[in-house]
Amino acid sequence: MKIAIIVPCYNEEEVLPQTVEKLRLLIAKIKQSAGCDPHILFVDDGSRDSTWQLIKHYSKEYGCVDGIRLSHNEGHQNALWAGLEECNGRYDAMVTIDADLQDDENSIVEMAKMFMGGKDIVYGVRRERKTDTMFKRLSAQAFYRIMRRVDNEMIYNHADFRLMSARAVRALLQYRERNLYLRGIVRMLGFSEGFVYYDRKAREAGESKYPLRKMIRFSIDGITSFSDAPLKFITFAGLAMTFISFVIIAYALYEHFTGKTLQGWTSMLVSMWLIGGVITTGIGVLGIYIGKIYTEVKNRPRYFISDKTY
Ligand code: UDP
Ligand code: MG
Fold first, then answer.
1. Is the C-beta atom of 74 inside 6 A of ligand 1?
2. What is the pLDDT of residues 70-95, one digit of tens each?
3. What predicted TM-score, i.e. pTM, was given to this entire model?
4. Topology of the domain covering 2-208+300-308
5. Residue 96's closest CA among 190, 25, 182, 215?
6. Is residue 67 helix, strand or coil?
7. Strand 162-165 to strand 93-96: parallel, antiparallel, or no bridges (unpaired)?
8. Is the minimum distance from the CB of 111 to ligand 1 under 6 angstroms?
9. Domain ranges in the chain?
10. Which residue among 88, 147, 152, 201 is least packed, with the fewest CB closer than 10 Å?
């Protein structure tokens, strides 16, 4: 039984040595308890620090470590995709986990056991978020709430820490969309599922590569890739506003014919801004979807591999 542990890394030189040590300990444990032979694949997502040098060094030192390097920073989701494509066909199961090991790597033992018990996809689900900042916790909660409404298949508090069987990965790789939101697609595969619960830890070293800006972009991506609810919402909002404006027109005509025309300056100004705001938002939402169509239609390659340790 061959298992790959895929680890995307972007500027992770500070945490990488610890990651390697911990994963090596874990691998020894899995070999003993679950009787299978895991391998690590680091995907360097175009880091600008010494991450790649470290990966090369560790792969020389330890037989169980491999690495590929993307020619450019393509983002977490694409890095995961690159790792899965690279391992596809060579392993019986693939686990994806972040380089900072905020997700408890020891859960992989349980994942492997569930896999051998016949589960195709095993999700790592965070039980607690004690170590995240208040802001991260609240924003994540709000996001999962919205996402749940938009896509009720969504698993609360599951990020991209999961195990997938070879056939689940093969199925996943058939989704050709460029706007990747993996945790949404994986749910659509329909193979047998299992869950492993763990407490999320603080980052061991280095800082988050997901600043607020990227988090917002990723949330919008998640929602708009899995739902056209925002489009429906703006249509209804537009209809409601049209209806309201009929009432206002009737009122304005009445005011005109009863001779009090100079009044209503305030309501003019207010409604002008309100309508302007709603229209602009509507155009913005349309723009997001059109933007997605644009990237899908161009169908550009997701990444290029510029280097391998093997
Ligand atoms: N990552 C990546 N490419 C990027 C940004 C992040 O491969 O452009 C990796 C990063 O190295 C880490 C994982 O994605 O292994 C998750 O990032 P991070 O831990 O910074 O996010 P957070 O846990 O703060 O949401
Ligand atoms: Mg992290």
1. no
2. 999 999 999 999 999 999 999 999 99
3. 0.86
4. Spore Coat Polysaccharide Biosynthesis Protein SpsA; Chain A (3.90.550)
5. 182
6. strand
7. antiparallel
8. no
9. 2-208+300-308, 229-298
10. 152
